[in-house]
């Protein structure tokens, strides 16, 4: 009996030593697992970045096509500012295409220890409602601002959007800046100012209202910056703490967020469309379309799908990196989108000039600076993990 108790104590002592001092093979396995996780993370970030670039390009191409075919190039104040609730609704209405994808992607193993109280569910519901209203407001203001503001005013005020995002991220998300991120922000603002694409629905001199356009564009920029920060806050403080995700960031969270927020935003925009009586103008809009009813419907459907591609990519960048990085990527796509617009459309006095070429080159520097910052952070995390698991052999 005494021998049995002694053997048990010896076994327990060996197990505790094994836990405190893991074997080299175990440490190597942990490092490999961390490397695989890092590679998956970079792959996810690259995919989301591609979706943002693709979505931005398609949206601007189809928006220009729509407004050129809608005769917005002609001077007509009564026509210039119509259809904004329709455009706001189009930005959010195609979310049902994401529902099958939501069920295709597998959820991680549920964590029974994760807090999943009714209070947490109520806060998530409140988050979706608030973000839906905010996204609807941004969609409406974006549609109005582009029709009221000329190219120069809209570009300059929209460039300030990144500054708002940086300020809100620092306050709301407790984001820590370094010199590489600051350099990236400054370069991105310059890139956006000199590299933004032309817009076919831009007003002429007789249709401009300078006292309105600045405030509309300004309010839209603030709403967009706030929405990015609240998306990030929702991921980090609410969704990741639910039982179904078990403290893991997965792409399915992006789909859930986009579906729920877009649903609320679509309802708000639909109410605005009906309340304003703008739905009565849809028939006239389709008849006025140069290429006919079929192309009118196809252009709206294409716009709706393109907005969803862009939104999923942007929210994915918010999940995997930050709202600030998502805004940087979104604004850095402007020179590439400008090149595509120049090649696709023949706007007066619009060409891919030297400032835009410089902006396109600067895009690599801005994104490279931010990517270098992320690389350093990931390297520091791996080094810290190596030190924690290091043992004397």
Would you summarize the structure shown here?
The chain has 16 helices and no strands.
Structure description:
It is a single chain. With 393 residues, the protein is an all-alpha fold. The protein has one domain. The protein is built from 16 helices and no strands. Helix 11 packs across helix 13. The longest helix has 46 residues, at 24-69. The radius of gyration is 25 Å and the shape is globular. The model has no long low-confidence stretch (mean pLDDT 81).
Which helices and strands, and how do they pair?
Layout: H1 2-20, H2 24-69, H3 77-80, H4 84-90, H5 99-104, H6 118-148, H7 151-159, H8 161-172, H9 179-195, H10 210-237, H11 251-275, H12 282-288, H13 293-320, H14 323-332, H15 334-344, H16 354-389
Subcellular location: Membrane
Region (Disordered): 1-25
Pfam families: PUNUT (PF16913)
* Overall radius of gyration: 25 Å
Strand content: under 5%
Order of helices and strands: HHHHHHHHHHHHHHHH
Number of strands: 0
> What composes the largest sheet?
none
The amount of helix comes to: over 70%
Integer average pLDDT: 81
How many domains, in number, for the residues? 1
Number of helices: 16
User: What form results from the Cα inertia axes?
Assistant: globular
Question: Can you tell me the residue ranges where pLDDT is under 50 for at least 5 consecutive residues?
Answer: none
Question: How far apart are the first and last residues' alpha carbons, in Å?
Answer: 35 Å
Q: Label the structural class.
A: mainly alpha
């Amino acid at each position: 009996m005494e021998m049995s108790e002694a053997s048990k104590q010896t076994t327990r002592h060996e197990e505790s030593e094994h836990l405190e001092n893991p074997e080299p093979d175990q440490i190597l396995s942990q490092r490999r697992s961390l490397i695989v996780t890092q590679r998956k993370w970079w792959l996810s970030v690259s995919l989301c970045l591609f979706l943002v670039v693709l979505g931005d390009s398609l949206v601007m191409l189809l928006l220009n096509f729509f407004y050129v075919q809608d005769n917005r190039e002609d001077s007509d104040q009564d026509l210039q500012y119509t259809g904004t609730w329709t455009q706001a609704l189009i930005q959010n209405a195609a979310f049902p295409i994401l529902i099958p994808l939501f069920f295709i992607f597998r959820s991680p193993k549920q964590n029974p220890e994760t807090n999943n109280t009714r209070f947490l569910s109520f806060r998530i519901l409140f988050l979706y409602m608030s973000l839906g209203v905010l996204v609807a407001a941004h969609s409406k203001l974006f549609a109005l601002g582009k029709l009221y503001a000329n190219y120069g005013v809209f570009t300059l005020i929209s460039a300030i959007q990144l500054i708002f995002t940086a300020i809100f991220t620092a306050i709301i998300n407790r984001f820590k800046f370094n010199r590489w991120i600051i350099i990236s922000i400054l370069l991105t603002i310059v890139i956006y100012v000199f590299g933004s694409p032309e817009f076919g629905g831009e007003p002429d001199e007789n249709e401009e209202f300078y006292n309105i356009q600045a405030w509309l564009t300004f309010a839209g920029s603030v709403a967009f910056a706030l929405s990015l920060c609240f998306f990030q806050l929702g991921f980090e403080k609410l969704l990741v703490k639910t039982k179904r995700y078990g403290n893991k960031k997965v792409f399915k969270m992006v789909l859930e967020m986009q579906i729920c927020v877009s649903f609320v935003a679509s309802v708000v925009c639909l109410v605005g469309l009906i309340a304003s009586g703008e739905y009565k103008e849809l028939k006239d809009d389709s008849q006025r379309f140069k290429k006919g009813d079929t192309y009118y419907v196809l252009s709206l459907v294409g716009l709706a799908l393109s907005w969803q591609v862009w939104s999923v990519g942007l929210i994915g960048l918010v999940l995997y990196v930050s709202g600030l990085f998502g805004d940087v990527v979104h604004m850095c796509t402007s020179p590439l989108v400008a090149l595509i617009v120049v090649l696709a459309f023949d706007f007066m006095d619009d060409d891919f000039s030297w400032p835009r070429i410089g902006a396109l080159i600067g895009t690599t520097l801005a994104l490279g600076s931010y990517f270098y910052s992320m690389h350093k952070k990931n390297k520091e995390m791996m080094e810290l993990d190596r030190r924690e698991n290091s043992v004397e052999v």
